[in-house]
Amino acid sequence: MEPVVFTISGYAISFEQARQTAELMALRDNEFATLVSWCDREKNVHSPQCLKCEIKGEPGWEVYGRNHEGRLRISFNDDTFVFIFS
Hints:
Blueprint: E1 2-6, H1 15-28, E2 35-40, E3 45-47, E4 54-55, E5 58-59, H2 60-67, E6 72-76, E7 81-85
Parallel strand pairs: 1-6
Antiparallel strand pairs: 2-3, 2-7, 4-5, 6-7
């Protein structure tokens, strides 16, 4: 999975703004990019939410994204928001 990292300073980005930006990046080279999993650490929520286990220190939502054709891992501000796209 290819990592893409954004660091934004001087502006408080919201989850929805980060998601829209991540989607634009994912669609840049693949018109059929699909959001597979995500995490919002500010609100302590992630999807899929049914996964509560960790595998070798990785949270379940991240393992799920990688194992379901995750192609890009797009992170904002030190993993405050993370989106995994196929």
